[in-house]
Amino acid sequence: MVYVAILVAISAFLLRSLISFSAVYRRVQAERDVLANARGAMEALGLEIRSAKSIYMPTSVLSAATGQLSLETPLNPNINETSTYADFYADNKRLYLKREGSAASPITSENVEVAEFLVERVTAGARESARVTLTLTSAVKGAAEASSTITAAFTPRGNY
After folding, report:
1. Cα(10)–Cα(19) distance, integer angstroms
2. Best CA proximity match to 114, nearest among 130, 98, 144, 91
3. Which of 41-55, 87-101, 138-152 has the lowest mean pLDDT?
4. Other CB atoms closer than 10 Å to residue 126's CB: what's the count?
5. Which terminus has fewer CB within 10 Å in the chain: N or C?
6. Rounded CA gap, 155 and 147, in Å?
7. pLDDT band at 26 (very low <50, low <70, confident <90, very high)
8. What is the 3-state secondary structure (H, E, C) of the chain?
9. pTM for this one?
């Protein structure tokens, strides 16, 4: 009887430990997904904005929680053109990049949700910059949920 009681106690302890480790693993995985997606999205935004000529105001949606940033860029223009347009926008809880003449491609994975994509135009004299605030949360809800907010400012090359 004593051996059975000890075996039951050890089994219960191991089971609780396994459940606890599983919850911690899910939380760490969610945090890693959020941070990796936030870093990747901000790198893509930074590269595109820094290589752009300017922020294209007619189609940009600024100072909105799920805004849109349109850029006039010299990267990969159509034949007989010197520039093209690229749009970043949030839709269906994902961040997308759409280049003129191409289909939109997601920048964030389905493991995270875009809670906020706020773009603000900052001007100083003739110079303009884009201040981007990106808030991502994990698609997993509950105890394993993770969230991250990153704010960065980028200046288009045409404004140096």
Report:
1. 14
2. 91
3. 138-152
4. 6
5. N
6. 27
7. confident
8. CHHHHHHHHHHHHHHHHHHHHHHHHHHHHHHHHHHHHHHHHHHHHHHHHHHCCEECCCCCECCCCECEEEEEECCCCCCCCCCEEEEEEEECCEEEEEECCCCCEECCCCCEEEEEEEEEEEEECCEEEEEEEEEEEECCCCCCCCEEEEEEEECCHHHC
9. 0.82
Cβ contacts of 45 within 8 Å, gap of 6 or more: 69, 88, 132, 134, 152, 154
Kindly tell me if the per-residue pLDDT of 45 is higher than 90.
yes
| Residue 97 vs residues 20, 70, 77, 116: alpha-carbon distances, Å | 39, 10, 16, 16
Which residue matches tokens 């760490």? 28
Q: Which two tokens stand for residue 95?
A: 């961040």
Q: What is the mean pLDDT of residues 65-78?
A: 87
How many Cβ atoms sit within 10 Å of the Cβ of residue 72? 18
